[in-house]
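Lecture 7 notes: from sequence to structure.

We start with a single chain of 107 residues. Read the sequence below before looking at the structure.
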Amino acid sequence: YYFFNINKIDGYKAGTLKLYFIYINYFGGIDMNEYLEQAISEVNNLNEGEEFLVRDLFKGYTWNRMTVGTKLSLDKLFLNEVNTNKNLKISVLGKNSFHQPIFKKLK
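Now the structure, written as tokens:
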């Protein structure tokens, strides 16, 4: 284990979110943009008209190793990408009972 004082980073007070991203990057973790890119590329493997959740775009063990916060952030990032990038040809159908967005691959 490495112990170091992260009370300030470049003159700014480190918050919980900053500490989280320092942790995953310092220990060789994957960042949110890489997860988002993986999810978007996996959509190409879906059939047209197929409904899916973001969790369906990852292998089970990859999704299970993510923290709850990472999963929630990834849901929001993917939803935002779908809403802003119409070239993806994905529609948002709504949310399920767990408040996860449901998507559908279009033609």
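The longest strand covers residues 90-95. Keep this in mind for problem set 3.
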